Please model this.
Amino acid sequence: MRYPITLRVAGSLLLAGSALALTTSAAHAADFYLVARGFDATLPDGAVVPMWGFAECDATFTSCGPTTSPGPTLRVPPGEPSPVVLNLHVRNELAVPTSAYIPDQLAALSPVKFTDAMGRARVRSLTAETPAGGDGLYTWPDLRPGTYLYHSGTHPQVQVQMGLLGVLVYDAAPGVAYPGVPYDAEALLVYSEIDPALHAAVADGTYGTPAYPSTFDYKPTYFLVNGAPYTPGTPPLSVGEPGDRVLLRLVNAALGHRAPQLLGGYLSLVAEEGHPLAFPGERYGTFLGAGTTQDAIFVAGAEGVYPIYDRMGSLTTNNVSGGGSYAFLSVAHNALVNVTPAPLSGSPAAGRPSAPQQDLTPGTPDPAGLDAPADRGAFGCGAAETGGAGGLALMIALALGALVGVRRRGGWRRS
Amino acid sequence: MNEQITRLPAVVIAVVAAGLLSVTLVADVPAAEARINGLSGATTFNFTAKADHLSTGEGSVLLFWGIANGNGRAQYTAPTLILNQGDSVTIALTNELPVATSLVFPGQTHVSASGGTAGLLTREAAANGGTVTYTFLADHPGTYLYHSGTNPEIQVDMGLVGAIIVRPTGFDPLNPTAYGPPDTAYDNEVLYLMTEMDPRLHALVESQGVAALESTDYLSNPEPNYWFLNGRNAPDTMAGDGVAYLPVQPYSCMPMMHPGDKLLMRNIGGGKDLHPFHTHGNHFRLFAKDGRLLRTSDAAPISDLATYEYTHKAIPGETFDFIFEWTGEQLGWDIYGTGPGFHHTCTPDASGFDLVTKEYCPDHGKPIPVQLPPDFEVAIGSHWGGSPYLGHTAQMPPGAAGLNPMGGFTYMWHSHQERDMVNNDVFPGGMMTMLMVVAPGTHIH
Model:
């Protein structure tokens, strides 16, 4: 079944109705509605970790997709004249203030400061906060094409690690990532990590106390690609046919660096952090620093499964080898391009007590909204199992936006 | 430049050093004196993976897993393969380790594996005697690496990593190039394979086996405390190739050059950690990464995107090639000395350098701008030869280390992540060596 990418435009703008009025008449706007919620993630070894994530909703927040980390991939439709406006409508169902931030996309920021115990004004949020239980709107007035990380801008040293992260994709033109960089198929590889001790400390309110003072001692033991550690038997990402220009969108949301290394071929590095390179660099591996994105073109000469794995060694799951940051790219004639499973299979956190939240800056009170109850959303394993109430447009929006996966130019081949 | 030198008859520069020593330098300057040590002239290799113990720079020992050429002792780092472009290479691996193992060849695009059993990244040789065979076509020149493809987060740290050098088509040992284009020409070459080891991991594997790692966080939060160049910690990096007291660590890592030489450095990030490689003495011209020239297109005749750096972040799994040059240009004083006993001439070429000595003629005859302190006012370092002038030595007090009998200029080259310059917390050591610039005509080995 083929869904033209333009359906995403229709879906987005349909749902965007009222928000369009907020923008200037000349500008095209893409509106996304994200709810920030807690959920419980079940990891391959059975560990259950309290996470924060985003779910994509309709414009009234009455029907939402699964809450995931990474959150929904926000695909802004290409082909509209500049400027294109991005509006992120955030509903905050966490017990603490949060916000949305996209490094290297221009926006008017309103940093939030607080006064610490020593009387110093300190920043706790890179931009305006959405209070617990409240709604916020974040606007980028003139999007630049590229692959970007979006994440919480509030206490990011904690909230990003808790899972408030995702990817923004905005192509220069349909099937063209950057001017002069066309592609036939794409694969998204989002790296993240989990230190369960941090998540437990945030959940039970001991973060910022001597029990877990700060992320200074952050020690992740789960290393995720597209929201899940590799587990044996996971099917490879199908990325097209020999000779296809496969665009790898590499995104590192972790606090640690990654060095994805490809076996059996070379990558042509075409962009870093949304900025196209004047001359692509040819290499079999790359350095993907914490918080950065890169785009690379991979052209496989022959059918096969091509491993791409972290050469810095994040190849364990809870300290057991054979997990972590492995991914595999399948190149085959007449390939059916897969959609990968939704990130972080999890279970609803219903019934889990809403733990009191402490200030996320050690030793300093944060009076904003700490007592609001956390409404942990329902959580499913894939778009097909959820979002039914939203109708076809929402289904398509979720299929294209919520899933981290592989897309072929012109639309999905199979879902 | 080098071609011109080699066509000259032997030139004798006679200088008389101050004091008792008289040094005669014979400049016959053969091209490309220094070559990387490794296995060359073969395309079929029978390797055995096995365990052994290596010596660390401060005198300790670590269990390691290495590769033996044939069935001798394992070595760290694994044998350096020196191949020719177009070689069809076969590596038959026998595994005597207690765990399955394998080899992967990043940057090689025609790799096939046969025998053994399927693993995550490639086919593997089973523990305790399993075999597997790999073939690949070395169709591009350059600097590469190979390493374990089985739980590399363990096995690379344990020692299963080595270098591959592919000589370009038409390689001429008397006028060598790294990749073929003229801007990759060099006089001397040195390998600089950077790795590290977490001693906790090695101790646990030795005492309790690999499975015990699962009850630690050694893999998710490694704490390396040994850093290696070509399988040795400083100061052993500066010992010669194959010295008897390092029987499983055969590879030296001490660059030497004459003024004006082009020194090719083949650097490899072989471990799991970043190592900002830093040169003293000059910057360098970085012209290739991962076995590919830095250039605007494959049609570019030279590496026209080459850059100059003095510190390069070596990325795990990455290789990079650069050329380092040193002449003493614009030091502001005469590197061969002034005054009685230091007579020499300087005949500038179009660039201002003497053709033979590579002296920068505008500085010829300028005295060193300091008053040299007497011996009893200084602490004498082991690389001090007694004279500040290139090619000169002088009598030193009894007991001075005297590691610089050729009167060279010494520059430390090291990881600028300075933590990497210890051996299990003991400074100095680790990922550090010295560049020795020696006078024209001094033999480099």
